[in-house]
Amino acid sequence: MNRTNQLKKLNQLLNNLPKNIFLTGVSTDVGKTYVMKLIIKEFQKNGINVAAYKPISSGHSEFDNKSDVNQILSALTNTQHYKDINTYTFTMPVSPHLASQIESNPIDVSKIDEKLENLNNKYECVIIEGAGGWKVPYSSEGFISDWVTKNKFPVILVVDNKLGCINHALLSVESIVSSGNCLIGWFMNHTSEVDEIIADENIKFLEKHISAKFLGVIKFNQE
Ligand SMILES: Nc1ncnc2c1ncn2[C@@H]1O[C@H](COP(=O)(O)OP(=O)(O)OP(=O)(O)O)[C@@H](O)[C@H]1O
Ligand SMILES: C[C@H](N)[C@H](N)CCCCCC(=O)O
Ligand SMILES: [Mg+2]
């Protein structure tokens, strides 16, 4: 892939930095946490007092180094601890609504809001990672996307460059935008080595069909 890293495009945000940025993906395992770490590092390099928030995490315990929260902590230079970054941790690797049910720990959105408010009082910008894709439930009726819409958080979408990504990306964009959310832009991430011709065509096609800004390519194993 001969496209250069365009993470620097994020710098355009710095003049008009949102208080919160919600990072979503076209599905689970598409590299939201991976990309989030790169964004955090870029913001820190630019002197932004940035915090992270992963309100709902499923699939890891607090003591697992591979958990999203511990991964994110490893990129941060601030003084955040696990419990500042996370409100609900479920060990079951399933949808939050189910994990919460199985582990008898119902999700109370006001607790999520409370922690975010603390972060907003202390930091210039909070990058929030969702769980899975855009429309993931945290209870039998509540969706994380509705929480984002209610709070008017600007959104960044991560797409994993693989077969199926065109459909997943366009459906995600349609849903994000049609519920009135501001889509700042999207990244094309590479969770594996892929055929360059196909990968480039996916990017070209999506650039043409997504009106939000293309924020850049994240290569496989990009540091
Ligand atoms: N650009 C990349 N290069 C190498 N590995 C990557 C890249 N992006 C993601 N990965 C790997 O792919 C896996 C899934 O990525 P990640 O955990 O960031 O996904 P996610 O979208 O945050 O998933 P979840 O929905 O569980 O939060 C991880 O093992 C991660 O290290
Ligand atoms: C366990 C996984 N890695 C994520 N934390 C949760 C993904 C939820 C996906 C729900 C769904 O869309 O079916
Ligand atoms: Mg993640």
UniProtKB/TrEMBL annotation:
The enzyme class is ligase
Q: Name one GO biological process term.
A: biotin biosynthetic process
Asked if the keyword Nucleotide-binding belongs to this entry, the reply reads yes
Name the positions where ATP binds. 29-34, 68, 129-132, 189-190, 221
Q: What is its EC number?
A: 6.3.3.3
* Gene Ontology CC terms: cytosol
* Cofactor(s) the protein requires to work: Mg(2+)
GO MF annotations in UniProt? ATP binding; dethiobiotin synthase activity; magnesium ion binding; protein homodimerization activity
As for subcellular location, the record says: Cytoplasm
- UniProt keyword annotations, A-Z: ATP-binding, Biotin biosynthesis, Cytoplasm, Ligase, Magnesium, Metal-binding, Nucleotide-binding
Active-site residues? 54
- Pathway annotation: Cofactor biosynthesis; biotin biosynthesis; biotin from 7,8-diaminononanoate: step 1/2
Which residues does the annotation say bind substrate?
58
Q: Which domain of life is it from?
A: Bacteria
Reaction equations catalysed = (7R,8S)-7,8-diammoniononanoate + CO2 + ATP = (4R,5S)-dethiobiotin + ADP + phosphate + 3 H(+)
Q: What does this protein do?
A: Catalyzes a mechanistically unusual reaction, the ATP-dependent insertion of CO2 between the N7 and N8 nitrogen atoms of 7,8-diaminopelargonic acid (DAPA, also called 7,8-diammoniononanoate) to form a ureido ring.
Please give the family membership noted in the entry: Belongs to the dethiobiotin synthetase family.
- The entry's protein name is ATP-dependent dethiobiotin synthetase BioD
